[in-house]
Design goal:
Length: 607
């Protein structure tokens, strides 16, 4: 095992930094692996900071959490005489997003701290500039530094251009893996992505009522997506390049083969997308690209066939979120930061020589790994969670062997609070009451951006949900028929920023996280986030048609700025990363320039 301090990576000599907070464990990832690691580490009395987000976890795409004892779909097996009532069945249905939120609350209650959702690690190095005194936990090994990305580079605010750093004595890598695109015609795929190409059947499936959709892939995700889509679509065509499905649930594969409205095309691959381009609205420059079908080819006979379809769900596997661990200058030969070992697909390798002492150790002492960032085999929430627990236990034991004092839980909590008061990383804030909105203008990062772990915990204890209902701004009642263009138009003009969203939709959660990075939530007086499911199912369906008519896109979230539709989640995120979103928000008068600047000040100082 290689010690981080001996790596060739540049080491920083910063001199005196008396107030630098050092966490015992930095957890990179907020999916089942990261959340469970955070829970275990915090309960072991360690100070913990977690990066990542619920919406970034692949589990957020699971409509119902299956294969997780104690959670998931109803228990009725058809043979029970007294099966659960419809209401009980509904209560039993427990989705992935609900599991993530529940486990995060548990981890917070145990004392773990969470950075504002959406801030991601972009660099890893070790630093050796802390004196023994500053490194107050004792111990001799070097400290890890994680640089955080996602700060708008184009902002006028100087602070925003500086990177954020966090420091820890150990690191747990739990960044998971992301679903891949087909990569056949990248620019066309980007144009269609989120409009008629998707990776989440749960979020976008209901847009395809009585339409024809294609599912690409032959694994669990593809089979699940096809079965779900068959509930809405007139026809589902599963295109898979092999004859056999590699899905682990053979029962689901059999269901797939027997469903009337599912057609299986194997062994076929997509060769071409068929689209038409139409002018959108009254703006001549805006053109809409509409998918009308695909051309598929039999991989054995080379025979080709045109297939009409309205949407494509790409479910062809994942890529671990480890690219940022590669040294840029050596991207091709796979050299990594600090000498971490990755396999040819980018999965982080365990150091098997340490199996008896630390089962989740990597090649770098003090860095552990859990979940789909390392596991290509089991790829389930429960296995990722179990690995998270193992990694946390390994980290705790390793810290002890390095001579770090194992203070009592309460002492650690106090240390953790002190650390947070000294730092400026935007920790996840508690929802603010309306009247507090003004505080965004004047408060320091300590007061506003960096709620202490204790504050986070108290808020969670007082109100276990994410939002404190008594503090939320009342959403103005919609008095007209929002499924009519005139009404929808009126509603989107009532606030500078209006978002139509649905619950259990990871993209909607991700959009809220993106807005939070700009200091905005539904509590802001200029922002109206409308949960369309409250309008009733039939209204939602009609509203999709109206949205499609107005914007060319019928899925949620739908973002309207200054009375005009601007985008869904993916494009909004891109604008946020590029620093353009803030300018657009200022231009649409969601907040004024002063406020926008102060919001950045709130949490984006260098540590
Ligand atoms: C459609 C679908 C349905 C599924 N259904 C089920 C099911 O019913 N039951 C089941 O057991 N499993 C299910 N799975 C599989 C399950 O979701 C995964 O096995 C599990 O989520 C993997 O957990 P993880 O913690 O390793 O990664 P993830 O859950 O993917 O979490 C990764 C985390 O890392 C964060 N992250 C990414 N990059 C960085 C970075 N640079 N810095 C910091 N953080 C970062 C992300 O924001 C996220 O929080 C399903 C998967 C899909 C796609």
């Amino acid at each position: 095992m290689q010690d981080a301090s001996s790596s060739s990576t540049t080491q920083q000599q910063v001199g005196d930094s008396p107030s630098i907070p050092i966490y015992d464990v930095l957890v990179l990832g907020s999916g089942p692996a990261g959340l469970t690691a955070a829970l275990f580490a915090a309960r072991a009395g360690l100070s913990v900071l977690v990066l990542g987000s619920d919406a970034g976890s692949s589990l957020s795409e699971a409509l119902v959490l299956d294969n997780f004892p104690g959670f998931g779909s109803n228990l009725k097996d058809g043979n029970e005489k007294n099966g659960p009532s419809a209401k009980e069945e509904e209560e039993d249905e427990f989705g992935g997003l609900a599991w993530l939120k529940l486990t995060k609350r548990k981890a917070m209650k145990a004392g773990a701290n969470f950075a504002q959702a959406g801030l991601l690690a972009s660099n890893l190095q070790s630093v050796s500039w802390l004196s023994q005194e500053e490194n107050s936990g004792g111990g001799t090994s070097s400290i890890f530094q994680i640089d955080i990305d996602n700060i708008a580079p184009n902002s006028n605010n100087n602070h925003a251009q500086r990177p954020l750093h966090v420091h820890g004595r150990s690191v747990i890598l739990a960044m998971g893996a992301t679903g891949q695109k087909l990569g056949m015609d990248a620019s066309l795929e980007n144009e269609l992505w989120g409009k008629s190409m998707h990776s989440c059947a749960v979020c976008d499936g209901s847009s395809y009522v009585d339409q024809i959709v294609v599912v690409v892939g032959g694994g669990d995700a593809a089979v699940d997506a096809a079965l779900l889509l068959a509930r809405y679509a007139k026809r589902v065509i599963v295109v898979h390049r092999r004859l056999e499905f590699r899905a682990s649930h053979q029962q689901h594969v059999q269901m797939l083969q027997t469903m009337d409205n599912i057609q299986i095309a194997t062994p076929f691959v997509i060769k071409e997308y068929h689209v038409v381009r139409r002018q959108q609205g009254d703006q001549k420059t805006q053109r809409q690209t509409i998918l009308t079908g695909i051309r598929i080819q039999n991989t054995e006979t080379n025979q080709e066939q045109n297939v009409r379809c309205d949407g494509i769900f790409v479910m062809i596997g994942s890529k671990p979120n480890t690219e940022w661990l590669l040294l840029k200058e050596n991207n091709n030969n796979g050299s990594t930061k600090l000498g971490l070992q990755l396999d040819s697909n980018g999965y982080i390798l365990l150091d098997k020589s340490q199996r008896n002492a630390y089962s989740k150790a990597t090649a770098v002492a003090g860095i552990f790994v859990a979940g789909e960032a390392t596991d290509q085999m089991y790829r389930q929430a429960i296995t990722a969670a179990a690995e998270g627990a193992q990694a946390a236990m390994d980290a705790e034991r390793w810290l002890r062997t390095q001579g770090y004092s194992t203070a009592s839980k309460d002492a650690r909590r106090t240390l953790s609070q002190q650390q947070q008061q000294q730092q400026a990383i935007p920790l996840q804030t508690i929802p603010r009451p309306t009247q507090d909105h003004q505080s965004l203008r004047g408060k320091s990062s300590d007061q506003e951006g960096a709620a202490t772990g204790e504050q986070q915990r108290k808020a969670q204890e007082e109100e276990p949900g994410q939002q404190a209902p008594q503090q939320q701004r009342e959403t103005p009642a919609i008095t007209c028929d929002v499924a009519q263009v005139a009404c929808l138009d009126q509603v989107v003009h009532e606030h500078p920023l209006v978002v139509f969203s649905t619950p259990r939709c990871p993209q909607c959660e991700a959009l809220k996280e993106t807005l939070a990075l700009e200091g905005l939530s539904g509590d802001h007086p200029n922002v109206n986030i409308i949960n369309v499911s409250k309008l009733g199912t039939s209204k939602v369906k009609k509203m999709r048609v109206t949205l499609k008519e107005m914007t060319g896109r019928k899925s949620f979230p739908a973002v309207f700025l200054g009375g005009k539709w601007i985008a869904g989640e993916a494009q909004t995120r891109i604008w946020q990363k590029e620093g353009k979103l803030r300018e657009m928000l200022v231009e649409a008068k969601v907040y004024d320039v002063d406020e926008a600047t102060t919001v950045v000040d709130d949490g984006q100082e260098e540590l």
